[in-house]
Every structure is written in structure tokens, then in C-alpha cells.
Amino acid sequence: xxxxxxxxxxxxxxxxxxxxxxxxxxxxxxxxxxxxxxxxxxxxxxxxxxxxxxxxxxxxxxxxxxxxxxxxxxxxxxxxxxxxxxxxxxxxxxxxxxxxxxxxxxxxxxxxxxxxxxxxxxxxxxxxxxxxxxxxxxxxxxxxxxxxxxxxxxxxxxxxxxxxxxxxxxxxxxxxxxxxxxxxxxxxxxxxxxxxxxxxxxxxxxxxxxxxxxxxxxxxxxxxxxxxxxxxxxxxxxxxxxxxxxxxxxxxxxxxxxxxxxxxxxxxxxxxxxxxxxxxxxxxxxxxxxxxxxxxxxxxxxxxxxxxxxxxxxxxxxxxxxxxxxxxxxxxxxxxxxxxxxxxxxxxxxxxxxxxxxxxxxxxxxxxxxxxxxxxxxxxxxxxxxxxxxxxxxxxxxxxxxxxxxxxxxxxxxxxxxxxxxxxxxxxxxxxxxxxxxxxxxxxxxxxxxxxxxxxxxx
Length: 459
What we know:
459 residues; alpha+beta; Alpha-Beta Plaits; 2 domains; five-stranded mixed β-sheet; 11 helices; 7% strand
């Protein structure tokens, strides 16, 4: 998956997780709160309806005691008709209320109580209607109403039962009102619980979303940071370890490609630096170490010999009458001659610690660490003999019919008050004595007190 697509997926997934968590929490909060609200609203409505019903019932129960205070049949009829009208109005309202109510399972007691009151109202209405008819008959005959009739109306059993049930209805109203108070508390708790669940789910959704985002971003950013670190700290001479590739195993393809390109570039730079370093310390014609490499190696071996106390030897070599050879045979043949001399030196100085250098046009040096003077002289003589065996023709030489060498040998154990230049000066003095006083073509060993021209005069 590409980097751009992975970043888009990361953002979309994080947003989706948080959104789903928020919607889920909001839904749970709404469900809990809504159920509590609906139950509390129904109970509140029922409390209000019971209050109205109780009030209407108290107003509808006939005050039959007033019948005894009148002596006129017409007045008794008027009071009975008024009470009948009140009962009829109450019953119609109660019938409408019962017809429109939705009865939950816990509402059976209230429903039974209302049905009982309704039946009692019907019975009381029938009894009062019978009393009214008798009162109308007495009024039509212009005779007083019998006390027994009025006593019967006053002592109507259904009215006494209605009064008792009105008190029961009031008691149910009080219990329902108390239940409403409890439901109000539950409603507050439900809202708090719903809000708590919503916030908890939202926090969890954020936590999951951020964790997902962190892990995905870590897969993207860690390789980038590692690559940036490699770019800052990697030396061209040291390639990153192969195990570091694990940092990029799960990286997007763009970063993996960038890492691969960086390592390829680092490898090319390292190879280029190696070539440049080799060219800077190698003689182009002979392939031997050059003067720069010789100076570095001499300084290193001098300090090493100071620490170890071992002898350090140096051979300075010069091709006899090489200018005359070049003039006679030409530069191409002269170069070939130098290459054969270099090959001879490498063949004779074959230890891994020996360093063969070309330090001038026809001048060479062999640095021999941990080598005593006798061994150095033996090697120098072997070099002269090996080149003689090649028998490279040299028609202009005054010392031999072939190309030959003059060698100055200097050896000793370095001391703190000496410098590497002293070893060069001693070998140079021995070479000068071989060439000027001993007739070239051979080896001369420097004495401890010998000193001569500085090496720079050989160039």
C-alpha cells in the first residue's frame, strides 16, 4: 500500500472508530434516558389524571343529607336531579378516561379501582333515579314525601361504598405520586448513567482510534526517522548493518525504495572513496605505494616500534644511470623497465608487513617493520641479485651491461629523541656513499652516526 493511501486509510479509520464509538455511546445514552423519561412522563400523566378523577368523584357524590332539610317534594326532586346530573357527567368522563388509557402491567390496581367506582356510580344513579320517580309521584299527588323514602336515599349503600373508594383512590394517588418522585430520581440517575456510558465509550473510542493511529503512524514514521538517522550518522566507509533492514520490512514501498536507493548511493560513494583513496596512495605506473603512503606508513611504524622496542629497517633504492636508459631506449621502454623493477621488489619483499614504494622517478623505498639490520641487508642483496637475473639490457650503463640497482640500508630501534626523518637521512647517506664512493650496483649499510642529504633532494 502506498504512503499516500496508507495515510488516508489511517485518518479514515481513526475517524470511523471515533464516530462509531460516539454514535454507540449516544445511542445507549438516549435509550436509557428515553426509557426513564417515558416511564416518568406516563406516571406524571397518571398522577394528574388520578388527581382530576378524585376531585371529580368528590364533587359527583350526592350530598343526600340535604334531602332531609327540605319539606317540599319539588325541592327534593330538584336536588336529586342535580345529583343525578353530576353522577352522569362523572361517569361519562370516567368512561372516556378508561377507554383511552393504555394499561401497563403494574396499573391493574388503579384500573380495578376505577372500574369499581364506575359500577358504583351506575348503581347510585339507578337508585337515585328510583327515588326521583317516587318523589315526582308524591309531588304530583300534592302530598309530602315519606320519611322512609328520604331515609332510604340518605342511607344508599352504593354512595357509602363510593365514598370509601374515593379514599382508596386518593391513597392510590398518593402512592403514585411517591412513585413519581422515585422515578424522577431514577430519571436523573439514568441520565447520569447514560452520560457516563457515552463519555466512557467516547474515551474508549478515542483510545482505540489513537492507538490504531499511533501504531500505523509508527510503521510510517519509524522507518523515516531511522533513515534520517542513517543519513546523518552513516559514514561512507561503513555501510549500515544488514540487520537494520528490519526497520524497513513493514514500511510503505516509497520509504523502502528510498532506503534501498540510499544504501545503493552509500555503496557507490564508498566504492568511489575507496578508489580515490587507493589512487591517492598508489603510484599509477607501477601500482606500488606512492610517496604519500610511504610517509604515512613510516610515521605509523616508527610509533609502533617506539612502543614495542623492535628494530625498524629502511631500504632506499635507485636505478643506476636510468636517465641514460630513458634517453637511449625511450620513455615507453623506460616505463616498462620501472614496472619490472617494481615487480622484482614485490616478489622479494613478500611479507604482509613489508611496504614497497616508488618515491621518485627511478627511486624506490622498502619499509621493513620488525626487521633487524642483518635481515634487511640480506633482503637488499637478494633484490640486487634478482634484478641481475632479469638481465634487462642497458647499453649506456658504466657499471653493468644490464639494468642494476644501488641500495642504501638503515636500521635501528627508534628512540623518543629521534624522528622518522633520521632513519631516512641515514639510508639516504648510505645510498649516496654507494653511488659516489663505491661505484653503484650494490648495497651499502648506514652507520649509526651517518647522515647525509635529506630525502627531499632525491625527488
